[in-house]
Design a protein that fits this description.
About 60% of the residues lie in helices and about 10% in strands. Strands 1, 2, 3, 4, 5, 6 and 7 form a 7-stranded mixed β-sheet that branches. Helix 9 packs across helix 15 and helix 22 crosses helix 26. The chain is of the alpha/beta class and about 800 residues long. It has 4 domains: about 70 residues; about 350 residues, no CATH class; about 200 residues, Butyryl-CoA Dehydrogenase, subunit A, domain 2, CATH 2.40.110; about 55 residues, no CATH class. The chain is flat, with a radius of gyration of 32 Å.
Length: about 800
């Protein structure tokens, strides 16, 4: 028994030492010294036979030699991995940078850094501007929605918007812009989009924003002068570029150009370009005055003189240039915003029209890979749509009786409203976190890519759930129905935001998680991928570091998994949310371990596996949403009334991430990898199955009763006291109906006990007055509330006179 106790003690010491070394990613010397110290200590303490000591030494020495000593590791491990890495194509995205992915995936416990993201605040100038011109614009849109007082198809609209300073909000003041921060621009877009997406696109079109950014950052002094005219509404820029095959929104050429030498009069010959291009569904194409066209420039005769025969560049082409044709406008979801076709045949422009010159053309094209303009615009538009739909759905459920005095009626709408509230909270939290990062540190392609993947999915979740509440009214178009208008926002953000889902997933995965991998880029270079011929010795050293990284991830996941996440770090003082925050860290540790093992198994081919990358990107996006929810809840003062929303949003994100991880392990990973991840990170089963009914009920309550939490959830959208405003009428009806809740409950109680009878409300009220259960004033309040309910629930009708089939003359 004493011998067993000694063995157990030194076994525990050995396991703890190995865990500490793996967690610290210690080098081979530290491992050798620690193993020697443990075996020596055991030998002096237990005094075993020599063959026991020899057996222990061999048991540790053999794997140590193959894993830590290059001479043994290289033929067994490194050379085999080198083949997997060298056979892959160069990664398409190597410049993504995301502090979130760095903290949560690379370092493992980044709550402190994530919570240091500053809060999103509007400056005084931005607040005054939103309260002034932006509110006035929204009032105009509400005052006469059926006559459409502003139409982007009317060229007079652009000077009108320019007069209010709505064009070029992000441009510096030296060009006449307002130099608003991304937070300010997003707030303007969100408020306008809650009423009219077409006008919001005029103000913050992502393609036009990217075009202005390119001219501002890379344009010559002469080229940048056009920005002043853009702010005045005299010039309209359109970016003509197709989505790339790796999922970026822009960057693929719309055509080609040939360098030529042209003679102008008696002066020296000048270099020019002869261009041919064609692209469909181009934002602002029908009304644009200047086109920024991405083309491949061919220079077979080296007329430029730099020895580059083929380069990709952005060329400024006036829309009225000879050979340019702008086709008919596309009707996308009945938007009045102009989308159209642009084509050009034998279009001749000077070589000086290349944006930034031939020297900077590579940097210009690389800048096109930034998805931030698309992510920020569509996240703001989808947030506006989700807030409008959620606010309307909560009011409609209460007004229509889905959520009324009868308890059974509440259960039918609780699940739907709970999903809507949680998805809206999560979407807005993710958007705020991204805006905070970009406002302070500039472009963060990793966060923008994750946000872009999230917004359409969250928006569609809200809209689909809203259909269960609104019914046919959700698709009935008309001036009094806001829901039908915002219903199309998520579909537009998904279709106009890039390529197909799997390619977007691959792009996001590369831009976020893999971009933060400390060794992947160096391993690809050492294996001979991309420029250079590779270096096998360097690759072998990197393999050793990668093995240490895998051991580190293994220990982290093991500690968090077997402790039920009790050893997982979490933000301090989280008042009832610390358990969920721990589970987020635990799930991220399991996902990080999966990524590292998948890299060892598949090598760089993981970069090209669209299905695997798509699932991994969705996992990363859901974990990002969960951390954003924690950040919003904590920075918001940890309000007790907001906790059900935050908890429901976190559970929904983690359940989705867990489901994607299960699908990944079951369909895209070998059995040994599946067994390791399950046994290490989730030994007691999958912790997140579904939301509870009680949690859904608590989250749904935030939408059906006027309250501060409801106002905070839907802050940023426009609504006023205007009688023409459908949302204002709905809010007024909700307030009135909530005020008479005691009277309605009294009426229902009288019906249940048989004191009140009648087929409709009038008969019931007459019966109640006869039984002296209601005063005349109370009955009048119920009548007024019922009339208001009927008014707001009425659906719009068309003005056309439809001839009845029965009145048509039968054929002779």
């Amino acid at each position: 028994m004493e011998l067993l106790n000694v063995v157990a003690i030194w076994g525990v010491i050995l396991i703890l030492a190995a865990g500490i070394l793996a967690y610290m990613q210690a080098g081979s010397l530290a491992w050798a010294a620690s193993i020697f110290a443990v075996i020596t200590g055991y030998a002096f303490h237990a005094r075993p036979d020599w063959w026991v000591i020899a057996g222990l030494a061999l048991a540790f020495l053999v794997p140590f030699c193959f894993l830590a000593i290059p001479r043994f590791r290289r033929p067994l491990i490194s050379d085999r991995l080198s083949e997997r890495f060298s056979a892959a194509a160069p990664p398409t995205a190597q410049h993504g940078a995301s502090i979130w992915c760095s903290e949560l995936f690379r370092k493992g416990s980044g709550w402190r850094e994530i919570l240091r993201f500053p809060r999103t605040h509007l400056t005084v100038e931005e607040q005054d501007y939103i309260a002034g011109p932006v509110e006035a614009l929204c009032e105009r849109l509400v005052a006469s929605p059926e006559r459409r007082p502003l139409s982007p198809l009317d060229r007079r609209t652009w000077p009108a918007l320019a007069a209010d300073g709505l064009l070029g909000l992000d441009l510096p003041k030296e060009f006449g812009g307002r130099a608003f921060s991304p937070v300010g621009v997003a707030a303007v877009v969100e408020k306008i989009a809650s009423r009219d997406l077409s006008i919001a696109l005029c103000v913050g079109s992502p393609a036009a924003t990217m075009a202005r950014t390119l001219v501002l950052e890379f344009g010559t002094r002469v080229q940048r002068e056009i920005l002043t005219e853009v702010v005045r509404g005299n010039e309209i820029l359109a970016l003509v570029s197709a989505p790339t095959r790796d999922g970026a929104v822009a960057g693929r050429p719309a055509g080609r150009a040939l360098v030529r030498r042209e003679q102008q009069g008696e002066g020296p010959a000048q270099l020019g370009l002869t261009m041919e291009f064609e692209l469909h569904c181009v934002e602002l194409a029908p009304v644009a005055s200047m086109l920024l066209i991405v083309v491949d420039i061919e220079d077979p005769n080296d007329l430029i003189g730099d020895g580059i025969g083929l380069r990709r560049a952005v060329v400024l082409v006036p829309a009225d240039c000879e050979g340019v044709s702008r086709g008919s406008r596309h009707d996308l979801a009945r938007l009045s915003f102009p989308f159209g076709t642009v084509s050009g045949r034998q279009v001749n422009v000077p070589l000086d029209n290349v944006l930034g010159g031939c020297v900077a053309c590579d940097a210009v094209v690389e800048r096109l890979a930034d998805v931030s303009p698309w992510a920020l615009f569509w996240s703001s538009a989808d947030a506006a749509a989700a807030k409008v739909s959620s606010r309307c759905a909560g009011a409609m459920a209460r007004i229509s009786g889905m959520w009324g005095p009868a308890g059974n009626e509440r259960a039918g709408a609780a699940r739907t409203l709970g999903k809507m509230a949680a998805a809206t909270y999560s979407l807005d939290a993710s958007r705020r976190m991204t805006l905070s990062r970009i406002s302070q540190h500039g472009v963060d392609e990793g966060l923008a890519s994750l946000l872009k993947l999230l917004v359409s999915a969250r928006g569609r979740r809200v809209m689909d759930a809203g259909l269960d509440i609104h019914g046919a009214a959700a698709i009935c178009r008309g001036p009094t129905n806001l829901v039908a208008e915002v219903q199309k926002y998520p579909a537009l953000s998904a279709s106009l935001g890039g390529n197909d889902q799997q390619l977007r997933g691959r792009y996001v995965f590369q831009r976020s998680a893999l971009a933060q991998h400390p060794y992947l880029g160096a391993m690809l270079a050492a294996a001979g991928v991309g420029p250079g011929h590779g270096d096998r010795a360097v690759f072998d050293r990197l393999v050793g570091r990668q093995l240490a990284r895998v051991a580190n991830r293994l220990v982290r996941a093991l500690a968090m998994g077997w402790s039920g996440a009790w050893l997982a770090p979490h933000p301090a003082r989280m008042q009832g949310m610390h358990r969920l925050a721990r589970q987020v860290t635990r799930l991220s540790a399991g996902c990080s371990l999966t990524v590292e093992l998948m890299l060892l198994h598949k090598g760089a081919s993981l970069l090209e596996d669209s299905r695997t990358a798509s699932r991994l990107s969705e996992i990363a996006a859901e974990l990002f949403a969960a951390t954003a929810v924690v950040r919003r809840y904590k920075l918001g003062g940890e309000e007790e009334t907001e906790r059900p929303l935050a908890a429901q949003a976190m559970v929904a994100s983690m359940a989705t991430a867990q489901l994607q991880l299960r699908h990944l392990l079951e369909n895209n990973a070998p059995r040994w990898l599946h067994a390791i991840v399950r046994g290490v990170a989730f030994p007691f089963g999958w912790p997140f199955l579904a939301e509870t009914d009680q949690a859904e009920l608590q989250a749904a309550q935030a939408l059906v009763v006027p309250s501060t939490v409801r106002d905070r959830l839907t802050a940023g959208i426009f609504w006023s006291g205007n009688r023409r405003d459908a949302l204002s009428r709905l809010e007024n009806a909700l307030t009135r109906i909530n005020a008479i809740t005691p009277l309605a409950e009294k009426l229902h109680s009288g019906e249940r006990v048989g004191l009140i009878h009648g087929a409709d409300l009038e008969e019931k009220l007459a019966s109640a007055e006869a039984a002296r259960l209601f005063a005349a004033s109370d009955a009048q309040l119920l009548r007024e509330a019922d009339a208001l309910r009927r008014e707001v629930m009425a659906m719009d009708v068309v003005d056309e006179q439809l001839e009845s089939l029965s009145q048509k003359r039968a054929p002779a």
